[in-house]
Automatic annotation (TrEMBL):
Topological type in the membrane: Multi-pass membrane protein
Stretches assigned to the Cation/H(+) antiporter C-terminal domain: 650-791
Residues annotated as transmembrane: 51-72, 84-106, 112-135, 147-168, 180-200, 212-232, 244-262, 283-306, 338-358, 365-384, 429-449
Descriptive protein name: Cation/H+ exchanger 24
Species assigned in the record: Artemisia annua
Record's signal peptide: none
Domain Cation/H(+) antiporter central: 503-634
Family: Belongs to the monovalent cation:proton antiporter 2 (CPA2) transporter (TC 2.A.37) family. CHX (TC 2.A.37.4) subfamily.
Location of this chain's protein in the cell: Membrane
Length: 815
């Protein structure tokens, strides 16, 4: 009986190709134990328990998926492709070609579990995407984005529809219907926001110009494209039932009004009930997540499609903190890492490459339709970018991004399968070509577009080469309010004067949580706006007031312009570098050892491998200074005492470009009458290891500095000769006295003899070897540390190695 049962399961089970079970046929199935008693007690195998078998299936998929993702990561293939391939490998296209494996791993109707949990996964995936999605982007969209979005949809619909009608006689009856042709044409022309966002985020393009434009264009396309999807659904439901479309439209309007008229007001009430700075109550979070199930049931019951209700429900929730951020943080990882794999297994079980190959001759018209849809989308978008005179490289990148496909398309394909509009061979072709297109496009995006390219300039923007009697433009970044006093105090002691005033751009950096689109707020332009979009930014006012206070007290020498950047930590440096580039700043000042993630409504801290400081140091278009505040570098509370207080700074000069920039900063501070400065230059014994060119540059700058301050009693200069790093450290430790600030160059151009043997001690590479030492607890100094890196004139792209660098240089010849 077992062999007959296995045969029946293979023929009539939920693993494709599908075949309806005759009504008069009875299929016997094996009932599994609910809970295993263990391999040692009864010698049971995982297949003897339903629960253990599900865990085994999920674990196997995760192993396969992570292995594929690890192998494809060097090629910039997104994670979603690895997940899809994992599902395909577990299905009848690969492992389940073995009847024994299929019967053991997916016995009986076990695929039914994956079908239902996969539906849950898609519901919550659409919900979370809706929470992060900001429809107000449409209000800020430019005409260029509207034209690109609309032209990039209309042309593919027309082209695909024309091809469909030309090969209509070769299509299957269901596929040849006008409603089906319209549905396929519309689906192939829309680039959905839920697909674009995770891929753009993975490629680290969220804060780039192209990334922002792509997200705005996708939102416009989704809003316009939903009308096409509604028309398709109404037409499909109206086949043979004339009144069904009317009921569908009425239900759609009722659901829409209930969600955006009722549920959205409830969300604002929850936000109002939540005290400022406190997390949203757990009861509200659970209620909202349960509401996703309710709207999934209602939308499916009314024939609106399972994912539409949860998606709109997510859109009704204000993005960002406190509510949107909390919902995303508490649910996103579980949905993407635990629930979505069930959806990919389900899709893999419904895909059968061999069934597609057997009917390949019948599928050629469909192949032509799919290729027409994808290519017309790419070229129509590219045409509009050229029409608006975008650079060819940027136009190619945007066209490639708008051609990406993913989870939403797979959900549509499953929906078509439920409508019996397509069968397993057609479904397999749609899935395979969608996966192939995204796999090819994603690496090409990295070839055509480098978000760091604009920052790689060859014009000097640093302190050393800025003329003395000119305005100094500085970008001051901060994450937490605690770092603001030390930053403002540094500006004070930097000695702004009437002849050399400061134009300060204060940039508050906040991590993007609970919303998809990054924000860059110019407070000079936004101060009169009070819409709900910026309601969660109100606390920025109190933080920026400290900088405004400096402007009020030193109005003649300091002007402040305030900004706020809300971006993912990984791409936050792009806003910093972009601001410095556009404002022609000569220095960026950063706080040391910042920890992002502390936002209202969140008790989680996000940690990344590379700090913000590292990425800014790597890509900055100007010089960078990192301030290590040990708690004492703050202005006195009494303003009268502030004018009388004397500061003692020490500058450690070890040679090289960074040391010269640090000396230029110390030179400006020495002009402050409240600052006394000691400059210590370290030289190698007998000139060992010195670079002749660097030595000449160092000698010239140091000589000019000493001549300038030779008669100034507040400035002292001395030289120390050392043989290795140990003697360098000993000399620094010997001069450790009552200093208020240590000023050091980071690393570029330092004679390696001076730091020989010290590299293994360094823990914070962003500070350099010497900067890390004087900032460490072992040094036992309460003085703060300012580590300076001079602007590096470079074109990283032309010097980059590896396959991607070589390919990019090849395309540069033509672009």
């Amino acid at each position: 009986m077992n062999s007959d049962m296995s045969a029946n399961n293979q023929e009539y089970g939920l693993i494709g190709p599908f075949k309806p079970v005759p009504k008069e046929m009875i299929v016997c199935d094996y009932v599994h134990e609910k809970h295993p008693f263990g391999i040692f007690l009864r010698g049971e195998a995982p297949k003897d328990s339903t629960f253990a078998l599900v865990l085994l299936e999920l674990s196997l998929l995760l192993v396969i998926t992570h292995t594929i993702h690890h192998l494809l990561k060097p090629f910039k293939i997104p994670k979603v492709i690895a997940e899809i391939l994992g599902g395909l490998i577990m299905g009848p296209s690969c492992l389940c070609t073995s009847p024994r494996f299929a019967a053991w791993m997916f016995p009986g109707q076990s695929a039914y579990i994956f079908r239902n949990i996969g539906s849950f996964a898609f519901m919550y995936f659409c919900f979370v995407t809706g929470v992060k999605m900001d429809l107000l982007i449409i209000k800020k969209a430019t005409k260029k984005q509207w034209y690109i979005a609309l032209f990039g949809m209309v042309v593919p619909v027309i082209a695909t529809g024309a091809v469909c009608f030309s090969v209509r006689d070769s299509l299957e009856p269901e596929m040849a219907k006008i409603s089906s042709i319209w549905g396929v044409s519309t689906a192939l022309s829309i680039t959905s926001f839920p697909v674009l966002y995770p891929i753009i985020k993975e490629l680290n393009l969220l804060s780039s110009d192209i990334g922002r434009m792509a997200l705005s264009t996708a939102v416009i396309g989704d809003v316009v494209g939903i009308y096409g999807i509604v028309a398709f659904e109404a037409a499909k439901q109206g086949e043979g039932r004339p009144l069904a479309p009317l009921g569908y439209i009425v239900s759609l309007i009722a659901v829409f009004i209930t969600i955006f008229g009722g549920n959205r007001m409830q969300m604002f009430w929850i936000i109002k009930k939540t005290p400022e700075g406190k997390p949203v109550e757990q009861f509200y979070i659970i209620s909202i997540l349960a509401g996703v199930l309710a709207w999934g049931f209602i939308s499916d019951f009314l024939g609106i499609a399972l994912a539409n209700g949860p998606m709109w429900f997510g859109l009704a929730i204000p993005d960002g903190p406190p509510l949107g951020a909390t919902l995303v943080q508490k649910s996103e990882s579980f949905i993407s890492d635990i629930l979505m794999p069930f959806a990919y297994i389900n899709m893999g079980l419904m895909t059968n490459v061999f069934a597609m190959l057997l009917e390949w001759s019948k599928l050629r018209p469909l192949f032509l339709i799919i290729m027409t849809g994808y290519f017309s989308k790419f070229f129509s978008t590219l045409f509009m970018t050229r029409f608006f005179e975008m650079p060819l490289r940027d136009g190619m990148t945007l066209s490639l991004i708008m051609s990406l496909r993913g989870q939403v398309e797979f959900l549509l394909f499953i929906h078509w399968l439920d409508f019996e509009m397509i069968r397993v061979p057609q479904f397999t072709m749609f899935v395979l070509f969608t996966t192939l297109i995204t796999s090819i496009i994603t690496p090409l995006i990295g070839v055509f577009y480098n978000p760091n390219r604009p920052y790689m300039i060859n014009k000097r923007r640093n302190i050393q080469h800025t003329p003395p009697n000119t305005e100094l433009q500085i970008v001051v970044c901060f994450v937490e309010e605690e770092s603001v006093p030390s930053m403002t105090h540094l500006l004070e002691v930097f000695n702004p004067t009437v002849h050399s005033p400061f134009l300060v751009y204060s940039l508050h950096l906040r991590e993007l949580i609970g919303r998809a689109a990054p924000m860059f707020i110019d407070h000079a332009e936004e101060e009169n706006e009070s819409d709900d979009k910026n309601s969660d930014m109100d606390d920025n006012g109190t933080i920026h007031k400290a900088f405004q206070t400096i402007q009020e007290t030193r109005r003649d020498v300091i002007k402040v312009h305030s900004f706020t950047s809300v971006a993912p930590k990984r791409s936050m440096y792009q806003d910093v570098c972009e601001l410095a580039l556009n404002k022609k700043a000569c220095m960026i000042i950063l706080p040391f050892n910042v920890s992002l993630g502390s936002v209202a409504g969140s008790d989680m801290v996000q940690n990344n491998a590379k700090s913000l400081n590292f990425t800014v140091l790597d890509h900055a278009p100007c010089s960078v200074a990192v301030l290590v505040d040990k708690g004492n570098f703050k202005p006195p509370i009494n303003t009268r005492m502030s004018a009388q207080k004397q500061y003692h700074f020490a500058m450690l000069f070890l040679g090289g470009a960074d040391a010269r920039e640090a000396l230029a900063c110390a030179d400006r501070m020495a002009g402050n009458p409240n600052v006394s400065l000691t400059v210590i230059r370290f030289l190698a014994h007998n000139g060992e290891g010195e670079n002749e060119m660097e030595k000449k540059l160092d000698d010239g700058l140091v000589t000019a500095f000493w001549v300038k301050y030779e008669a100034n009693e507040q400035v002292a200069y001395r030289e120390v000769v050392v043989r290795n790093g140990e003697e360098t450290v000993a000399a620094i430790r010997a001069m450790n006295s009552d200093y208020d600030l240590w000023i050091v160059g980071r690393k570029l151009g330092i004679n390696p003899i001076l730091i020989e043997g010290l590299s293994s001690w360094s823990e914070s590479l962003e500070l350099g070897v010497i900067g890390d030492y004087v900032a460490s607890v072992d040094f036992r100094s309460s003085a703060s540390v300012l580590v300076v890196q001079q602007q590096v004139l470079r074109d990283r792209e032309t010097n980059s190695g590896g396959m991607q660098g070589r390919i990019s240089r090849y395309f540069n010849k033509f672009l």
